[in-house]
Design a protein that fits this description.
By secondary structure, this protein is an alpha/beta fold. About 45% of the residues lie in helices and about 10% in strands.
């Protein structure tokens, strides 16, 4: 098996960015997927290295040099770099591979690392259905039992424990890309998501199990002790979990379909004529009857689903970009507060330019109040920004926060209509300082280093040009809101 064999595969769509014929003809001994900045201690001679380039920072020459030099020192056959994270393979990485004479191949976003890995191992050892004499790393009795467990619908924890039992008391984890633990062996201590998500794992051996749908569905098979399990064993265990996830994905699709139907009912205007429709949709989505409920809205439904999976024992249903949660009647749950530390982990899974924000409505006592919660969630979503990507409607407790949920196009029209006659000069500045100082003539004059009479004159001009009387509270609020909208 050579790198050239992969390049000639029509199914993978790989592109050679640099590599000489003699280097492309080197024998491939295996595949390792890694996003460590310096993976040399986990690599073996002749291995292909798959990397999503999560470690890469734009323009950082030192990182490219360090990563590629590690591959060259370990004797890697080639680097297969994914284009999904950054949309391209950086030029700095191409230059580093040329300098260290490591062939570089671009993996397009639509080609999963799993497909590349399978192509290598199927070429080396043959497909099981066609070549019964394939050399397996897992013992035959373990493979047979894992097949029976898969057919019997076993869960991921049971599968992982059985797959690793012959390795002794090894700590092995099955994690999502955001660091959520799907399963761990019985001898493995828990890992907080903040330590495991977003590429935070720095020690041990990790094998990424790519998802065919979204980056939020990718899994990671992780062994903290790199010497505890041979890479080939991990690859075969990963194949088992790829099969498990295929079945799980079909069940998840059915659940998402029920969530989409529930969201569609919430958005429909005529549902009020059928009081039982929402109750039926809630039951079909697996949510307990009676409430209370809460609606969340996000810019990406797949990201929202993975974020909610971090909340333990909270029943929920996710549609396209809306989720409905069932909350314990007696529990005071701050859902936005629980999701804020999770959201950076979710964002780290997606493309850097992805717009990922979330808004939460207020708790709805029952099905009849769900529409109000959904409208609140959508409004809270419009009030989010880069600095505060998760916001609940309860957080809109100031006029500025409330106005942030008004579309920018509407705010601009209001600001121009109300303050346009003032221009951007001294009258506008005087108004801002005057309102900030609770309409105190003396403090405004001191702040602007003006005579009080000058302040009186300017405020009179403001009132004349805007048609507002600054002795009236409602007119003060009009002008204050216009300043915040500008």
């Amino acid at each position: 098996m050579h790198v050239l064999d992969l390049l000639q595969s029509d199914n993978l769509g790989l592109t050679l960015l640099w590599g000489e014929d003699a280097l492309l003809g080197q024998e491939v001994s295996g595949v390792t997927a890694t996003d460590l900045e310096d993976p040399r201690r986990f690599l073996g001679p002749g291995e292909l290295v798959l990397s999503g380039l999560v470690w890469w920072a734009d323009g950082d020459l030192a990182k490219a040099d360090r990563f590629v030099s590690a591959l060259a020192e370990a004797g890697a056959t080639a680097l297969l770099a994914g284009e999904e994270t950054h949309g391209r393979v950086p030029d700095e990485l191409v230059a580093a591979c040329r300098a260290y004479r490591v062939p570089l191949v671009a993996v397009p976003a639509q080609t999963s690392f799993r497909a590349v890995t399978e192509a290598v191992y199927l070429r080396q050892w043959g497909d099981l259905s066609r070549r019964p004499n394939r050399l397996f790393a897992l013992p035959e009795n373990v493979r047979a039992e894992l097949s029976r467990l898969l057919e019997g619908g076993a869960g991921p924890a049971e599968l992982l424990d059985r797959a690793c039992a012959h390795l002794g008391k090894v700590a092995c984890y099955l994690l999502t890309a955001s660091g959520r633990t799907v399963a761990r062996t019985s001898s493995a201590p828990a890992i907080p998501a903040q330590r495991a998500g977003g590429g935070a794992l720095r020690e041990g051996l990790s094998l990424r199990i790519e998802a065919e749908s979204t980056p939020y569905d990718a899994w990671l098979l992780h062994v903290p002790d790199a010497d505890a399990a041979p890479p080939r064993v991990l690859h075969e265990i990963a194949e088992v979990f790829a099969q498990y996830r295929d079945g799980r994905a079909r069940r998840a699709d059915a659940a998402r379909a029920a969530g989409r139907e529930l969201a569609a009912l919430l958005e429909a205007e005529d549902t009020a004529t059928d009081p039982g429709a929402l109750e039926e949709a809630l039951a079909a989505a697996g949510l307990p009857a009676g409430g209370p409920y809460r609606v969340l809205a996000a810019t990406d439904g797949d990201a929202l689903a993975e974020a909610l999976a971090h909340l333990e024992e909270v029943p929920y249903a996710v549609g396209r970009s809306v989720a409905v949660l069932y909350e314990d009647q007696d529990a005071e749950v701050d859902v936005p507060g629980l999701l804020r530390p999770v959201w950076p982990l979710i964002r780290a899974c997606g493309a850097p330019e992805a717009d990922l924000r979330l808004g939460a409505g207020a708790r709805a006592a029952g099905a009849e109040a769900l529409r109000a919660s959904m409208r609140q969630a959508r409004f809270a979503l419009t009030a989010t920004d880069e600095a505060a990507p998760v916001r609940g409607v309860e957080q809109l407790d100031t006029l500025s926060a409330l106005l942030s949920g008004v579309p920018q196009e509407v705010r601009s029209v209001y600001a121009t209509r109300t303050l346009g006659a003032l221009g951007d000069g001294m009258l506008r500045e005087t108004l801002e300082v005057f309102l900030a100082n609770n309409c105190s003539w003396t403090r405004t004059a001191e702040a602007l280093h003006l005579h009080v009479n000058t302040v009186h004159y300017r405020i009179e001009r403001v009132e004349s040009l805007t048609g507002r009387d600054l002795s009236r509270l409602d007119h003060k609020l009009d002008l204050y809101a216009a300043l915040r909208c500008g």
